Amino acid sequence: xxxxxGPLHRRQILQAGLAGVGAxxxxxxxxxxxxxxxxxxxxxxxSLYGMPSPHEADVQRIIAAAYPEVxxxxxxxxxxxxxxxxxxxxxxxxxERHHNGVPDIDASTHRLLIHxxxxxxxxxxxxxxxxxxxxxxxxxxxxAGNSGGNGSAQPPQTSxxxxxxxLSCSEWTGxxxxxxxxxxxxxxxxxxxxxxxxxxxxxxRSIPLAQAREEGILxxxxxxxxxxxxxGYPLRLLMPGWEGNLNIKWLHRIKLTDGPVYAKxxxxxxxxxxxxxxxxxxxxxxxxxxxxxxxxxxMIVPSAGYYEISGLAxxxxxxxxxxxxxxxxxxxxxxxxxxxxxLPQATCRFRxxxxxxxxxxxxxxxxxxxKGNTQPxxxxxxxQRVSGQIYHYNAIQAWQIIAGxxxxxxxx
Length: 412
Description:
The chain is mostly beta strands. It is 11% helix and 33% strand. The chain has helices at residues 10-16, 19-25, 126-130, 160-164, 177-184, 209-215, 378-382; strands at 6-7, 62-67, 71-78, 96-98, 111-116, 122-125, 135-142, 167-176, 192-197, 204-208, 217-222, 225-226, 236-238, 251-257, 272-273, 279-280, 289-294, 305-314, 320-326, 334-335, 337-339, 348-356, 361-369, 398-401, 407-410. The strands form 6 sheets. Strands 1, 17, 18, 21 and 22 form a 5-stranded antiparallel β-sheet that branches. A hairpin with a 2-residue loop joins strand 11 and strand 12 (225-226). Helix 5 crosses helix 6 (209-215). It is globular and about 70 Å long.
């Protein structure tokens, strides 16, 4: 009987013993010297700071410079999601988005000013902030323009990291913003705040005050160590699940106001033009989303047999409740396994064993969060926006596996 592509239960895999995988991946065992070259030579001594193996040198951020000749510090570098596993992004691979380069800031002279509609303006040094009780939170940061290339008529034929890599997830540690706002005293007329970075672009965004007070964290540490300069050293704002550039880096000023200030960074950019000519503004929370990372463009599925489909899902609205995978272009869907813990506003790893019959097929994943938000199809999302719109693209990603096992990015 002819085999068909489809999901596998773990019991099926155990019963099969992965014989096909073993036969494809290894040669016949022969008698050999079991003392390897590395066992014959003493290894290197300790180091002051651990680095990745030189054999993993290809695991790098993917740089996209916006204006390399005029402003080389303006642009982005993307996380190579397709080369990683788990959910936490190493600090050295966390994506970057800069509007005028990475500033060199001395933490000993850096200050945070809180002013505007407050009872008393306050200024904090980094040493001051280090004395406050700390909180830790695992949360993703996603640029509003992440995956925007898929909004074009012809989907980009590049790696999953190059398309979706303006997304990273870390453990962030710092001080609850609400502590400091309450200490300054919030004027009853204050409903918004503007947060400003201390870099050469002076990037600033308006943020609803109630949510900032409740959810905001002044992050000092990332994955257990002090922030890297490209991630906002010595201080950044964390708004879990909100647009990436609300998580202001190199934070030096917060001003409480009675409304949004319509700053340059929220009017010239980060608005969404609709077919009726009206632009949506302050669409701040990132939607439910997922992407299959293995297999994806740039990879080869070498032959028919057993594989694991794996990827990431996330939502700014809360926890991921379900990820479904289709292996037949959307005709049938199967629930994937979610690798715990599944946390709110954090990436979640999903996995599904799969047997490929070697014939062309289309793989897709569809995420639903705990609020019931589900990823739309590409066609449904594009019907709500004009061509070329890049912000808040969260449509279902489709990978087509063609004859020979190559993977293509397709719109379905």
